[in-house]
Write a structure and sequence with these properties.
The protein is an alpha/beta fold. The protein has a single domain, classed as Rossmann fold. Helix content is 39%, strand content 17%. The protein has a five-stranded parallel sheet with strand order 2-1-3-4-5, with helices on both faces.
């Protein structure tokens, strides 16, 4: 099982990182993992130039390595904090740059995806409430579909900015265990 992580938090020691680490630590040590920090990547934004519709590729080549890893993985993890009912801008820029995949694969809203390729979504939010999670699940679902990945499951933790929030509750290790069991079957 090859795993690609798309990490959308500016805080490498924060709650989103702890949740992601919980998942990664539950994988066997020899699991191939490619980790992409969106803030370090500093992706260029889609400009709507239309080049990808004509050529099938984005005119900007800054995300070629990331998208190659996304095409090659069995599991794609998107991990992010919630910012204003959405994901942080660098991660959103990556989502938007999937336009070549949309033109190549779908061009309709009847998108069928490969059930063997799994998409996981890990979200943390400083405030309580689940509405923002629903919005981001829809956004990320389209991102996964564009990449021919089936949204499988996620972990969503609100209220992480509370002074009494217990970071030991941030767990996704059980998801890794289920994926590993499915792989054996």
């Amino acid at each position: 099982m090859k795993v690609t992580v798309l990490f959308g938090s500016p805080n490498p020691g924060g709650t989103t990182a702890a949740l992601t680490k919980s998942f990664l630590d539950a994988l066997p040590k020899d699991t191939p993992v490619r980790f992409f920090d969106c803030f370090s990547l500093a992706p260029k934004c889609c400009t709507g130039c239309g080049a990808c519709e004509k050529t099938g590729k984005c005119k900007d080549r800054d995300l070629d390595d990331l998208f190659s890893a996304c095409e090659d993985c069995d599991v794609l993890v998107v991990a992010a904090p919630v910012y204003n009912y959405s994901v942080p801008a660098p991660l959103k820029a990556v989502f938007d740059r999937c336009q070549p995949y949309y033109y190549k694969n779908f061009r309709s809203f009847d998108m069928q995806t490969n059930p063997r390729r799994k998409g996981l979504l890990f979200l943390t939010a400083g405030r309580s409430g689940k509405y923002s999670f629903d919005i981001i699940k829809k956004q990320t679902g389209i991102f996964f579909k564009n990449l021919d990945i089936t949204y499988t499951c996620g972990r969503f933790y609100p209220g992480t900015d509370a002074a009494d929030f217990d970071c030991s509750l941030l767990r996704a290790d059980d998801i890794a265990e289920v994926l590993l069991q499915e792989e054996k079957e």
